[in-house]
Amino acid sequence: MLSTVWDYVVVGGGLAGSVISSRMLEYNSSLNILLIEAGEDTRSRTDILYTNATNLMGGELDWQYPTKPVSALNDRSLVYTKAKAWAVALRSTLVDYDEWAEIVGDSRWSYDSQLPWMKKAEDWFSTNSTAQHGNGGPLHVASVTSTGRNAGENLGRAELTETRRNGLREFTPVIYPLDGITVLTDTLVERIILAKNCSDGELRATGVQLANGTQISSKNVILAAGAYRSLQLLMLSSIGDSEELQKHNISKLKNPEKGLALGSDNPLFSQPEFATGYPIDWVVSTDIDKTGLAAAIAKDEGAVPDAATHSLLKTGRSFLENFIIYQAYSASNPTVPLDGSHIYTNVVSFLPTSHGTVGLECTSPATGPVINLNYLKTEVDRYVYREGIRQMTKVMLNTTFGKEFITGENAPNAFEPVSLDDTDDYLNSHLAAVVTTWHPHGTCSMGKVVDSEFKVKGVKGLRVVDASVLPVPMAAHLMAPLYAMAEQAAAIITDNA
Q1: In a designed cystine with 52, which of 196, 277, 314, 397 is the match (CB 3.0 to 4.6 A)?
Q2: Whose CA is closest to 122, among 93, 146, 94?
Q3: Annotated binding site for FAD: which residue ranges?
Q4: pLDDT over 70 for what percent of the chain?
């Protein structure tokens, strides 16, 4: 089997890898496709399908990448799980997609152009929203009512939409069938095999080498290993920043334009007890005060921003996601009783301007990459979070609902309960408690490392298709945008777009 020269080797059997493998074969049944996944084959496991499947975090399916200590978090190190999927279907705002298209110079990545691919992936629970939602696709998306939250206009309150069918999670390598595709699981790829044309020096990917030394030949290689591993594999294959490669005595073959910045969303005051599942059915997306935002931008950039042209000041931006959970999660604070007397609130920042980095720990693919998050390095990020805390505090303490039901915050140790008149400095001190929603992206961004058709610049036969190519932060949980992106990618790669 491995002696075959494959048409495509796809590295990574997660969301993107499963979608593009399945769809490419659907578009061209003559293709010989090998899908390589480092983890085990979980298609027959039922324990990942239920609402409490986040209990798997920290278990045998979780890669548990530790980050470097984060200075803004009192030098805490976070653990980036790779075994979570909460099934939240949120597409992001129209302005995010249109900015994506503008940055890469390709209208195919605008909201209107991606909408057909969103609909192709989708089996929306109702037939009353055909302008924005699809029916008959692989991915069942259910909500209590159709609200428009997934119509490119996220601001406001909406029921939570999730990818569940009959209460069970939709699992990508099952709903996108891999029949006819050769799948290798428990198989770690060490590097991409690159050949240089003697006459013009042009690089071409000719296959991959496994961690056990086996070499597999292929006409094309597609990396879909995620925002950490795809970049790590590029670097282990001599593609990447010269300084980083030199640290590990790796000879540089290609140094892409600087686009290797890690972006991620990070929620406020999230607790480990989230692993028991969500007793929640609605969310609220909000904007923030633009005057204060402009002042924060000026502090970061050294000049007053132009309100008409600055990216963050565009109309329609969704900066925060807010939700209230109908019970307490108290393991991190044993003084909070689980007797129905407490609820739990959470605030998520969607458009961080602080960017991290991903590097190599060593030259072994079995060792995870070095992850520096750089959370809360910018005044914009701190301002957005302060606004989020203030918005939630007003809801809890200064609305009819809040005054009727809420007496105040059960504050973490060493803190006083939040109030309506808290200072910026006091709220900044709360920010050291943030954790993460595990939405890494942008490490191989489109327009810099790859072009708008996912081709790694300067290397023929090599593409990257996963969250690492997202060129802008998205006001979303990344699952829905990635389904649409992978759908269109498969069509582009096989000339069916």
Answers
A1: 277
A2: 146
A3: 189, 438-439
A4: 86
Query: What type of residue sits at position 227?
Result: A
| Total of domains in the chain | 1
Note if 477 is an active site residue. yes
Task: Please report whether residue 314 resides in a domain.
Answer: yes
In 178-225, the DSSP E strands lie at 182-184, 189-196, 203-210, 215-217, 221-223
CB proximity list for 124: less than 8 A, separation 6 or greater? 133, 134, 135, 141, 146
pLDDT digits (tens, 9 = 90+) for 295-316: 999 999 999 999 999 999 999 8
Annotated binding site: which residue ranges?
189, 438-439
Above 80 in pLDDT, residue 111? Answer: yes
Asked whether residue 305 is assigned to any structural domain, the reply reads yes
What is the Cβ-side half-sphere exposure of residue 26, based on CA atoms within 13 angstroms?
A: 13
Residue in 133, 140, 355, 439 annotated catalytic: 439
**CATH code, 316:** 3.30.560.10
Whether the predicted pLDDT of 380 surpasses 70: yes
Residue 441 included in any domain: no
The 10s digit of each residue's pLDDT in 417-436 is 889 999 999 999 988 888 88
pLDDT over 60 at 330, yes or no: no
Q: Report the SS3 class of residue 354.
A: coil
Structural domain boundaries, residue 425: 69-82+142-170+245-432
Q: Is 215 domain-assigned?
A: no
Q: What is the pLDDT of residues 48-99, one digit of tens each?
A: 777 655 556 667 777 888 899 999 999 999 887 765 566 777 788 899 999 9
